[in-house]
Every structure is written in C-alpha cells, then in structure tokens.
Amino acid sequence: MKKIIILVLSLLLVSACGMNTAKNAVESYLKKYKTLDSEVLVDLENVIDRENLSEIDEDKYREVLKKQYKDLSYEILEEEYDGDTAYVTVKISVYDLYKAEEDAREYLSTNKDAFNDEEGNYSEELFTSYRLDKMKDTTEKVDYTITFTVRKENDKYVVSQPTENDLLKIHGIYNYDLD
Description:
The chain is of the alpha+beta class. The chain has seven helices and four strands; from the N terminus they run H-H-H-H-E-E-H-H-E-E-H.
C-alpha cells in the first residue's frame, strides 16, 4: 500500500512540475481573456473609461471586447528557454476589428452626410455608434504571431507585460498595413 501511495504521490509531483512551464504561463494568461477573468474585466473597464463614449456606445464597446476575448483562439508554436527567461511564440486568431474600423472610416469618407444630426451637422457620436456596430458585427478573423517573454520568479513562470503592439494584436486593432 505504501508503494502505491508513493507512486501516486510521485506521479502527482511530476505532473505538478510539468505545469510550471513558460508555455503553461502563457496559456493561463490567454485563458484569462477567454474566460473574462476579473483582472481582464477591470482592464476592459479602464479602456472603456478612457474613451469619450455615450452610455449606449460604452455598452456596445464592452460587448465588442468581450466577444473578442471569448472567441480568441491560439496555438503555441514554440517554447525556448534561456536561463530564467523563456520565449513562447503563439499564433493567435482574433476578430479583425482593425479592418472593421477602416471599412467604417472609408464609408464615412464617401457618406459623411449619413452621420449628420438633426440640425444637419456632422455628429462624431453617430459615426462612433456606426463604427462600433461594424466592429460588433464583424466575423472576419486575422492571425498574428506573438512572442511572449516569460520570466521565472520564485520558481514560477510569469508572463512579462506584452508590448503595446502585441496588446493591439490581442484586441484585433493592430494596424497591419504598416508591416
């Protein structure tokens, strides 16, 4: 009986050790988006608060971002270690919100009158609502490759703060026309 307990405990320890990898840290990080973890939702609200949106458009933007996060998919491509630092390359697939925004801006350039208020003046609020509707309705996806830096701290791998461009990719608003 003791041998069986020791065997089971050693298997559990090996399994637990296997969980402490850079790859697992990145998967955990991305799953926080997919499950709308409370940390992600706090950041989402901070993003929305920085925008000058009506209450209705705040709700639309919140819905767009939640959909983006929940439907994010990813594939770990490579995991490379260099001492206590690791680099995990991931291919992510997200809604192409950048294209939806660009399509809305293109429509605006040829149909500015469609966004006039009751007095006949251009309304940024009407355009913003239209742009958010386009983002909300998009089904087109785009793939990006991101290399996450992961550091070992106190025997645990922790994902370093992604670059601004990598965050834009996760949000689907990265301007890939500049690449």
